[in-house]
Amino acid sequence: MSDDINTTPGVPPVEPARHDVPPIKWEREVLEKLVFATIKEQRANRRWSIFYKVVLLVLVFFAIASYFDVNLFGGEGEVGRHTALIEIEGNIEAEGSGAASVVIPALNKAFSDSGSVAVVLHINSPGGSPVQAGMIVDEIRRLRQGYPDKPLYVVVDEICASGGYYIAAAADRIYVNKASIVGSIGVLMDGFGFTGTMEKLGVERRLLTAGANKGFLDPFSPQSDKQRQHAQEMLNEIHQQFIEVVRTGRGKRLHETPETFSGSFWTGAKAIDMGLADGLGSVDSVARDIVKAEDIIDYTQHEGLPERVLKKFGAAVGSGAMKAAVQVGVPAFK
């Protein structure tokens, strides 16, 4: 009996396994296709990975350049003869385009550029912080003394009221649209009082202070006549500062009446009659007809990529809430 073949009676013989039989052709083709597909996919993934890394590096580069205000294209950043433009949009406050920390660097760049013939402040603002407006006005006065041959003009589209006009009054001339809103030369401090509501609800306010007037802005505590008088005196003082800025800036052009500093506001056409503005005009018309330099270069300090990305992901939510809380009871040009 052979050792390799089963010869059991009634059972068909079994051939021994053969190890030298080549694989079937279609199996080999399938394996080859799978291998090639895997290699192709790996190459594609590698190419996309390189692409994404390059894009990320470019974004990081521009973000850093934007953050540090780097001139990416060489030169001194100066161009030919032109009109320098700076935008002030929205509230005059510590954050935004109306912040002194944003406007002042733009003013310095615009005035120091040898190619700028004049500087145009394009203001659309209902007002805001007396401190921010005052800092901008102080810098405007300093720059006008340092560059006496470079005029500063203000152009108003929709509104230039309160703190916005505080800044505008420091300019050489103010140009408006006939339907613009101009004026509101006044100061306010607003808030709420809930003492009556708390009494009806049976709620007791327990406030401990060191200093008799420390809690006089607390909306849940009654306000005494002395505290109210103190707040009014402070508002009157800031209002007088506002009035002096307008009188100094407008000079003999101002046709002062009892209504001028009442906090009221008027159309652009009426503001011209009152001496609060000098004429009708837009940014383009002022650059073309007044400055005689139609090329306009924007010097506004816009937000860089890091700030935009952070705000997109909600990083500004906390700071916004804090800002809203701090501004309660603060004097404002509005």
Task: Describe, in plain words, how this protein is organized in 3D.
By secondary structure, the protein is an alpha/beta fold. The chain has two domains: 49 residues; 200 residues, 2-enoyl-CoA Hydratase, Chain A, domain 1, CATH 3.90.226.10. 44% of the residues lie in helices and 13% in strands. Strands 1, 2, 3, 4, 5, 6, 7 and 8 form an eight-stranded mixed beta sheet that branches. α2 runs parallel beside α3. The chain is flat. The N and C termini lie far apart (115 Å).
Outline of the structure:
This protein is of the alpha/beta class and 334 residues long. The chain has helices spanning 25-67, 100-112, 130-146, 163-168, 195-201, 225-250, 268-274, 283-291, 305-312, 316-326, and strands at 82-89, 116-125, 152-161, 173-176, 181-183, 265-267, 279-280, 296-298. The termini are far apart.
Task: Describe the protein's topology.
Elements: H1 25-67, E1 82-89, H2 100-112, E2 116-125, H3 130-146, E3 152-161, H4 163-168, E4 173-176, E5 181-183, H5 195-201, H6 225-250, E6 265-267, H7 268-274, E7 279-280, H8 283-291, E8 296-298, H9 305-312, H10 316-326
Parallel strand pairs: 1-2, 1-8, 2-3, 3-4, 3-5, 4-7
Antiparallel strand pairs: 5-6
Helix pairs in contact: 2-3
Keywords: Hydrolase, Membrane, Protease, Serine protease, Transmembrane, Transmembrane helix
Protein name: Protease-4
Pfam families: Peptidase_S49 (PF01343)
Full CATH superfamily name of the largest domain: 2-enoyl-CoA Hydratase, Chain A, domain 1
Q: How many structural domains in the coordinates?
A: 2
Largest sheet: 8 strands, mixed
Kindly state the mean pLDDT as a whole number? 81
Given as residue ranges, the uncertain stretches (5+ residues, pLDDT < 50) are: 70-76, 308-328
What string gives the helices and strands in order?
Answer: HEHEHEHEEHHEHEHEHH
The number of distinct β-strands equals: 8
In one word, what is the shape? flat
What's the CATH architecture of the largest domain? Alpha-Beta Complex
